[in-house]
Amino acid sequence: MKFTANQIAGILEGAIEGNPEAEVFKLSKIEEGAVGSLTFLANPKYTPHLYTTKASVTIVNKNFEAEADFSTTLIRVDDAYKSFSKLLEYYNQVKMNKTGIENPVYISESATYGDDIYLGAFSYLGDQVVIGDNVKIYPNTYIGDNVTIGNNVTVFSGAKIYSESVIGDNCVINSGAILGADGFGFAPNEKGEYNKVPQTGNVILEEYVDIGAGTTIDRATLGSTVIRRGVKLDNQIQIAHNVEIGENTVIAAQTGIAGSTKIGKNCMIGGQVGIVGHITIGDNVKIQAQSGISRNVKDNEVLQGSPALGYGDYNKSYVHFKNLPRWVDKIHKIEKQLKGDD
After folding, report:
1. Domain final residue pick, 95, 119, 137
2. Domain limits at 185?
3. Cα 152 to Cα 134: distance, rounded to the nearest angstrom
4. Domain-embedded: residue 258
5. Do 238 and 91 share a structural domain?
6. Do 169 and 302 have their domain in common?
7. Cα separation of 79 and 60, whole Å?
8. Are residues 71 and 115 located together in one domain of the fold?
9. Rounded to whole angstroms, how far apart are CA atoms 69 and 62?
10. How many whole angstroms separate alpha carbon 78 and alpha carbon 155?
11. CATH number of the domain to which 301 belongs
12. CATH number of the CATH domain containing 71
């Protein structure tokens, strides 16, 4: 896809300085700009690169004043960073504006779907599947029986959505994500073996949820595993059966949450956090990366460590952790002195 400086300025409501017909077909950093690329200048420390960049078009702030000659065409806007972000969003919308049904696909006779759907090759829609309008399902995707998908949902290649799952409007499910696989439920028998406990519930995503690549969300044993409105999950996260995650909580990669734990709204959870089952974490909680949570957590707590301590307590204690060898040496010397005195 090619765009002219004039078209870009129209989208951003910006003013052109240079060639309005300059064409771009790719994006670049300003220091790596090449002919045909679009870049931006927002941070003043990158200003020297403007005079050497080969980018065809550069977005700058309206108040930018050049101190040397340059070859790039400028588009002046109120806020270069926000405008570039807006352009990225627009570019993604254009790039992903696919519609139609490719072949081969499997669509059950009892499945229904709305207008402007895109269904990529080798996708599977099971019995009684219901899909809304403007849904994009990329190739090699599995949608199990009785799944409901709302409007404006995107499911990227290779995702698997098991039966009875419910996906709300405006959700994004990235490649390799698995929603609705059985929870980890086994009961020991008299022989010391483990019998599987049937997992008969489902997974529910409310509106505006993003699921990262390779993330797994298990179906409930009974009832539902629920991801509330606005939750953002990074890649390679494990959400166990009957977990509930509150509105607008964000969780970074490789975090694991054990069964039946309830997490509040507006929480921020770092990468590689481990959370035990059957506990409650309040609202507005912040958990630093690699922490281990084994207790209930009150609203607004900030935690770090394993087992996690209060963030301030952890940092104070860490000063002493680093000095432990020195303190041990001192204690040994004192012990020797005391023994000598005896």
Report:
1. 95
2. 100-311
3. 5
4. yes
5. no
6. yes
7. 8
8. no
9. 17
10. 35
11. 2.160.10.10
12. 3.40.1390.10
335 in any annotated domain: no
Clarify whether residues 90 and 202 are in a common domain.
Answer: no
Maximal C-alpha separation, the chain: 94
Whether 168 and 197 share a structural domain:
yes
Q: Is there a catalytic annotation at residue 241?
A: yes
Q: Mark whether 82 and 121 lie in a shared domain.
A: no
Which domain-ending residue is among 95, 120, 135?
A: 95
Query: How many angstroms separate the CA atoms of 202 and 207, rounded?
Result: 16
Whether residue 108 is found in the same domain as residue 31: no
CA-angle at 136, arms to 36 and 148, nearest 5°: 160
CB of 57 closer than 8 Å to CB of 41? no
pLDDT, tens digit only, all 342 positions of the chain: 789 999 999 999 999 999 999 999 999 999 999 999 999 999 999 999 999 999 999 999 999 999 999 999 999 999 999 999 998 888 877 777 889 999 999 999 999 999 999 999 999 999 999 999 999 999 999 999 999 999 999 999 999 999 999 999 999 999 999 999 999 999 999 999 999 999 999 999 999 999 999 999 999 999 999 999 999 999 999 999 999 999 999 999 999 999 999 999 999 999 999 999 999 999 999 999 999 999 999 999 999 988 777 888 888 888 888 888 888 888 888 888 888 755
Are 202 and 61 in a shared domain? Answer: no
**306 exposed, middle or buried (CB, 10 Å; 0-12, 13-18, 19+)?**
middle
Which residue is catalytic, options 241, 278, 320, 332?
241
